[in-house]
Amino acid sequence: MDNRSIGHVFGQIADLLEIKGENVFKIRAYRSASETIGAWPDPVARMSDGQLRDLPGIGKEIGRAHV
Fold first, then answer.
1. Strand, helix or coil at 66?
2. 26 CB contacts (<8 Å, ≥6 apart)?
3. How far is CA 58 from CA 43, 44, 63, in A?
4. How many Å from the N-terminal Cα to the C-terminal Cα in the chain?
5. Tell me: the pLDDT tens digits for 8-25?
6. I need a labelling partner for 67 at 20 to 30 A (CA). Which of 19, 47, 52, 59 fits?
């Protein structure tokens, strides 16, 4: 799976969280992750949890999801 596809999935998660009425900060975090991952030049699917958390906009919980 390429970065754009993974980023798109994170965007869809943000949409679903918004529909569900989740915390706006959580929604914003998933949207930020979507943008970061979608534009990242290196394949994020091959990164460890720690490497993912080092990306801008990727926090502890999203990094743990390990795309």
1. coil
2. 17
3. 15, 11, 6
4. 9
5. 999 999 999 999 999 999
6. 19
